[in-house]
């Protein structure tokens, strides 16, 4: 709820309602009435507008079937409403259509979507640290998200991945992220496409012993990403997080016990040599 409130209060979300309702507001203005009055078939014009809105509403419903957060649902509604407004404005007056399109482009370039800033147990990698960190301790299992800040799918998945890290992070199971939009050589190395039309963002890869074990979404023989929904339930089920968490905790216990015994042995050796804690 706090992250949802933060996203709604951001400049990116504040500009959506005016653009959403701009055509209906303009339709009630004196400027809009004469244009509709000059239409030779006013009833058919209104019917055409209704058909456009109904068609885009159907697209929104189909698009929202894959949405997993409230932000995604609202974002899809606003996005396709802007498309509908642009079409209707161009039908009303090409100058108004160009003006509306210019406003949308200006808002898109100046108002960036908010990034998730909530609590998380995630280590962020660079192109120089990711391989080193994965190879450092092969007993540690890593779940790494390959993301890009400009991807709306990655932005929607960020709070879900953060919540998973809070629930399942332990000494034997770690969570990491790397921005492949910034580090393009990492995307090439791990075969994650970053094209604007890609369906591989985000990509989750499970590493065990420094080696990739599985990834979602999967890539078929033609190199295309298999459709997959990035919900919390799907990640837990596909990556067997409950089982991985229990195994990681069991493997961590002997290491923790050994780490506790080592200082005690060192202290005993020090006392045998005539040194005390005060001397140290």
TrEMBL record:
**Region Disordered: start and end of each range?**
250-280
Tell where it localizes: Mitochondrion membrane
Indicate how the chain sits in the lipid bilayer. Answer: Single-pass type I membrane protein
Q: Keywords for this entry?
A: Membrane, Signal, Transmembrane, Transmembrane helix
Identify this protein by name.
Thioredoxin related transmembrane protein 2
Q: What species is this protein from? A: Anser brachyrhynchus (Pink-footed goose)
Q: Which domain of life is it from?
A: Eukaryota
InterPro entries, per this entry?
A: Thioredoxin-like_sf (IPR036249), Thioredoxin_domain (IPR013766), TMX2 (IPR039101), TMX2_thioredoxin_dom (IPR037463)
- Name any Gene Ontology BP term: brain development
Q: Which gene encodes it?
A: TMX2
Q: Which GO terms describe its molecular function?
A: disulfide oxidoreductase activity
Please list the residue ranges annotated as the Thioredoxin domain.
116-254
Signal peptide bounds:
none
Q: Name one GO cellular component term.
A: mitochondrial membrane
Query: What Pfam family is a match for this entry?
Result: Thioredoxin
């Amino acid at each position: 709820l706090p992250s949802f409130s933060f996203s709604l209060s951001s400049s990116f979300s504040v500009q959506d309602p005016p653009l959403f309702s701009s055509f209906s507001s303009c339709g009630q203005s004196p400027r809009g009435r004469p244009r509709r009055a000059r239409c030779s078939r006013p009833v058919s014009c209104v019917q055409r507008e209704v058909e456009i809105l109904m068609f885009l509403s159907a697209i929104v419903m189909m698009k929202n079937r894959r949405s997993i957060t409230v932000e995604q649902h609202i974002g899809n509604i606003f996005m396709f409403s802007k498309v509908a407004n642009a079409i209707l404005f161009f039908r009303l007056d090409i100058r108004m259509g160009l003006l509306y399109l210019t406003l949308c482009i200006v808002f898109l370039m100046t108002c960036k979507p908010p990034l998730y800033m909530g609590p998380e147990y995630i280590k962020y990698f660079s192109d120089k640290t990711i391989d080193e960190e994965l190879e450092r301790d092969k007993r540690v299992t890593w779940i790494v998200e390959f993301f890009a800040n400009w991807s709306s799918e990655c932005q929607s998945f960020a709070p879900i991945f953060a919540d998973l890290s809070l629930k399942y992070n332990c000494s034997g199971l770690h969570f990491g992220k790397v921005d492949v939009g910034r580090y393009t050589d990492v995307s090439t190395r791990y075969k994650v496409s970053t094209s604007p039309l890609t369906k591989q963002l985000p990509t989750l890869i499970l590493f065990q012993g420094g080696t990739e074990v599985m990834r979602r979404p999967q890539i078929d023989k033609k190199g295309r990403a298999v459709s997959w929904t990035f919900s919390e339930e799907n990640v837990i089920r596909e990556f067997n997080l409950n089982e991985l968490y229990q195994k990681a905790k069991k493997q961590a216990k002997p290491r923790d016990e050994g780490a506790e015994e080592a200082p005690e042995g060192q202290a005993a050796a020090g006392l045998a040599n005539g040194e005390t804690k005060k001397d140290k």
